[in-house]
Amino acid sequence: MKNGLFLAACMVFAGLVSNVGFAQAPNNYGQPLGLAQNGQQPQAQPQPGMVVGAAGAGQPQMMPAPFQINAQEEQYIDGILAYWEFRSSKVHHYEANFKRWEYDSVFGPPNKDTFKSISEGVVKYEKPDKGLFQVTSIKHYAAPKDGQPADYVLRPAEVNEHWVCDGKSIFEFDVPAKQLKIWPIPPEQQGQAITNGPLPFLFGAKKDEIKSRFYLRVSPHQTNNPNEYWLEAWPKRAQDAADYRYISILIDRAEFLPFAIEVFDRNYNPDAQPPNMPNYSRTVYMFDNRKTYEEGGISDNLRQMFSRSFYQPQLPSGWQRVVQQTGGGMAQPGQVPANAVRPGQGMPR
């Protein structure tokens, strides 16, 4: 789930509030306490693959609304989205450090509130379609042993995710193979591919685009903190609902950009009763040390002098540059095939 949400049509980004407690203090491992404490689900909740009516030719299949909001609530949300769009349009460059907590009901710890892994990394974006997503460390849950408490440990041989997008291609650093893999982006998907991805929240948020793709409401668990807005976004399109159940977004009121996103598994239901098995799988991202630059400003000009190369990846010494293509074939290093792979057709998610 984690890669697919960030890759979008162009790049692995964050691809990025009911039942969450982001505002609470972290524990010794940096875990946001109280995540998904209340597994209560809204009425008329959609099931994966459920659609409303028959979609016309070329039209996406639509999910039923999982809840209803009144006119006052809709007006309130519209106001948030309108200013969010205005603020996002001013951002030419964005960068932040992130932490990522992954909860897994299949391969993770038996406690639904104990995460399987915690990662740290950096994400960068330059308008309209350049970006970087890099995990710098991952610690994995280690069960109690020999009387010692549970811990989170590094795996020395583990290779972390590292992706770069220059607007025309996605570059994957494949460390074990010593290859810089290049996934060409079709011309019709260049230019706005990042903002048109599955999670149009971090980069270039557009009110009409978000409303056309998501059922929105204020989080039932929003705190009284006047410096935060908490929203829930449930997918309208069946193809999105196949990837996740819903998304929670926390927006910083001062800078009006997300500082946390939580993505719930498509079958998320931590309080399921037999014969159904509980599912608490979800991924939490929190962004700090956030920096934004407006186009044409002095700070933006200085930033460009020093960080332009983040979307111009260098081939490490001894590595091979390999362009990917469909059909299981492999292009020659440095060559871009005419039938370059389209996102979702062989591209890793």
Entry keywords:
349 residues; 29% strand; disordered N terminus; disordered C terminus
Query: Looking at the structure, what is the overall shape?
Result: globular
**Sequence of secondary-structure elements:** HHEEEEEEEHEEHEEEHE
The value of Rg in angstroms is 21 Å
Biggest sheet details: 13 strands, mixed
Measured as a percent range, the helix fraction is 10-25%
Beta-strand fraction estimate: 25-35%
Mean pLDDT: 76
Number of strands: 13
Oligomeric description of these chains: single chain
Structural class: alpha+beta
Unreliable spans: 1-54, 326-349
User: What is the CA–CA distance across the termini?
Assistant: 8 Å
Number of DSSP helical runs: 5
Structure characterization notes:
- The protein starts with a helix and ends in a 26-residue tail after the last strand.
- It is built from five helices and 13 strands.
- It has helices at 2-7, 71-90, 207-213, 238-241, 298-307; strands spanning 91-103, 117-126, 130-142, 151-154, 162-165, 169-174, 179-184, 214-218, 228-235, 247-252, 257-264, 282-294, 320-323.
- The protein has a domain at 2-16 and 65-209 and 290-323.
- With 349 residues, it is of the alpha+beta class.
- Residues 1-54 and 326-349 have low confidence and may be disordered.
- The chain is globular.
- Strands 1, 2, 3, 4, 5, 6, 7, 8, 9, 10, 11, 12 and 13 form a 13-stranded mixed beta sheet that branches.
